[in-house]
Amino acid sequence: LPLSAINRLRREALDRLTQTRLKRYAPKSIPLSPNTTPYPEKILDYRANVLNSHARQFYARHGATVTEPALEGGGNPLGKIVMTTRYCLLHQLDACPRHAETPASLKKPLFLTDGRRRYRLSFDCHLCVMHIHLQTADSK
Fold first, then answer.
1. Is 122 helix (H, G, I), strand (E, B) or coil?
2. Is the pLDDT of residue 128 over 90?
3. H, E, C per residue of 56-93
4. Is-contact 59 44, C-beta < 8 A?
């Protein structure tokens, strides 16, 4: 048999198998039950990352009010927390009040820079996290 005939037979067989499967396929319908369980927080800011109307409606349905859109939506990030991390520079520099035997004394506030922006660091030692706040925007 020529290769074109074999390929045609293969395509026809696959089409017939697909048609048979589609005829026998019965999609399961999962009933959607509205959930109105109250959200634990009543007021949400940019950290809730609400960027579209669906997210806003979700929070409204659960009794929360969104006061600011997500930063990705064009909000002003200056002074706001742009990252929270368990990695802590106080711990790294042996200045952690919880983990260092004799914590080193550092002049606070601490800052990081990436050459274009400057970030202020704050520390929540109770939760053992470091917050990074955008201090200055791009200079370009």
1. strand
2. yes
3. HHHHHHCCCEECCCCHHHCCCCCCCEEEEECCCHHHHC
4. yes
